[in-house]
Design goal:
Elements lengths: L1 E6 L2 E4 L4 E9 L5 E8 L6 E6 L6 E3 L7 E6 L4 E6 L8 E9 L11 E2 L3 E6 L1
Parallel strand pairs: 2-11
Antiparallel strand pairs: 1-3, 3-8, 4-5, 4-9, 5-6, 7-8, 9-10, 9-11
Length: 123
C-alpha cells in the first residue's frame, strides 16, 4: 500500500504561482512512477505531468509544458508540481497518483491516488 497526501493548493490570482506537494508513505516510494492529474468541475480527469521513479524522465501534457514542472525527492518521499503563470482555466482539483512501472499518462492505470488538493485561480 502507498498512501498519498497532496498539499499546497489554494486561491491564487491569475499569473501567480503555486507549488503542490504530494507526500507518500507506505511501500518504497522510489520504485513508483508518479503522475499529477487534475479535474475541473464538469470535466474528465486529465493528465498533467509524470515523472519516472528515478526522476530522470519527465513528461507533460503539451498545453502545460513550460508553465508546470514536476520533480521528486525520493529521500523525502515527495513529488512536487511547480505551477507558474496560472490561468483561470487551471482551476481544478489536482491529484497525485503512483504507479509501479513507467509513466502512462492514463488515470485508468494508476495504482494509488491521493484525495486531491483544490487550486482556484481568480481572474
Amino acid at each position: 500500500q502507498v498512501q498519498l497526501v497532496e498539499s499546497g493548493g489554494g486561491l491564487v490570482q491569475a499569473g501567480g504561482s503555486l507549488r503542490l506537494s504530494c507526500a507518500a508513505s507506505g511501500r518504497t516510494f522510489s520504485s513508483y512512477a508518479m503522475e499529477w492529474f487534475r479535474q475541473a468541475p464538469g470535466k474528465e480527469r486529465e493528465f498533467v505531468a509524470g515523472i519516472s521513479w528515478s526522476g530522470g524522465s519527465t513528461t507533460y501534457v503539451d498545453s502545460l509544458r513550460g508553465r508546470f514542472t514536476i520533480s521528486r525527492d525520493n529521500a523525502k518521499n515527495t513529488v512536487y508540481l511547480q505551477m507558474s503563470g496560472l490561468k483561470p482555466e487551471d482551476t481544478a482539483v489536482y491529484y497525485c497518483a503512483a504507479r509501479g512501472g513507467t509513466v502512462t499518462r492514463s488515470y485508468q492505470h494508476m495504482d494509488y491516488w491521493g484525495k486531491g488538493t483544490l487550486v482556484t485561480v481568480s481572474s
